[in-house]
Amino acid sequence: MAQQSILLGITGGIAAYKSAELVRLLKKAGHQVRVVMTAGAEAFVRPMTFQALSGEAVRTSLLDPEAELGMGHIELAKWADTILVAPASADFIARLAHGMADDLLTTVCSATEAPIVLAPAMNQAMWRNGRTQRNIGLLQADPQISIWGPDAGEQACGDTGPGRMLEPEELFARLTGGANRGALAGRRVVITAGPTREAIDPVRYITNHSSGKMGYALAEAAREAGAAVELISGPVSLSAPFGVRVRPVVTAADMLATSMAAVDTGCDIFIASAAVADYRPATCAGQKIKKSADDMTLALTRNPDTLATVAARPDAPFTVGFAAETNDVARYAIAKMQQKHLRMIIANDVSQPGLGFNSDDNAVTAFWADGQQTFAAAAKRELAGHLIDLIAAQYARNTPGAGRATTDESTSNEEDA
Ligand code: PMT
After folding, report:
1. Which of 100, 133, 251, 415 has the most crowded CB, counting CB atoms within 10 A?
2. What pTM did the predictor assign?
3. 195 CA to middle of ligand 1, Å?
């Protein structure tokens, strides 16, 4: 991956000592690292440790007359490609969630346009505390912020439970794109995810059970494979995957318009994992519909099909659809692939408990013109990595000049039809 300018924020917690190893790993991989420490962090580790490892002066104070001569906090905010706060204490999380800018680190976070990643670390009771969880909820809803971890396990205070900071190696791998196999390096990938909502009146709507987990996992995996990823997302309660541009939408019409705009700006691969409502109310009442003693009939009208519209473009990208079926899964999925003129379709049997809609796991079969591959039940995050490998391989195979992706591992159980 390209060299990055990473601002590492360190707040007060015993896990601060682990961040020294993170600086070492990042520097060894050729990244530029600057460190900002809060007063609490200085109580655990001396700034000199990070200065020696990063080769840069460590900043600790907002009101540092020398640094602020050159508007130091704004310079830092603009310099950073990414800000990672590790460990992120409960106090720091609370201050950031409420837009405070009362020390250097919160001020830089307020002034930056870079993605901000938080790696929480605290006692398990502090993590579970309702106020902390409300603050986490606020930050999760912020498209600039990603929250990585915490892990669960034995804690420095002797408790056991959630609150351990992710290990430096894990943070390093996520920040730099894991193994970064680069199968999609230089490619632009647009992914749709989540449900759509179709208004009946100002207080009611039609929707479905999609959580967005499958699409968000695909976006993360595509980014790790080196792609620039745009995620067109219906209303979900997931945080933006790190390094992925999220475009929120509500209705099927929004999903179509936003997807077409994303494809207009250049798209190599389009993956539609969203569960788009096929119908919307023919009219949306301006006022709340009052109930009466009678039954009520709702007239529905067809929604536009984003995937089919993208696939029909003269400059269509490599289009991949999903099919959520409850019976005759392969037959319906292949028919959809043919009707919508797709290059691939990924079929899931959503009648199986614990898989598909709104669950952490899924099991799928991918179909393409002359082959298919089945993936047994696995976590969506793991499955997404395999699917992205497979899609990258099929894309390379079908796109002159795209180069052959290295996917030996993922295609080892391929059953060509
Ligand atoms: O979000 P999760 O909780 O993680 O669940 C994941 C999932 C089950 C939603 C996902 O794996 C999945 O199957 N997504 C597609 C669901 C679906 O609506 O399938 P479909 O068979 O109705 O549509 C076929 C394809 O056309 C899909 O790629 C869909 O995104 C696309 N489509 C459908 C209708 C429409 N108006 N526009 C579309 O783009």
Report:
1. 251
2. 0.69
3. 8
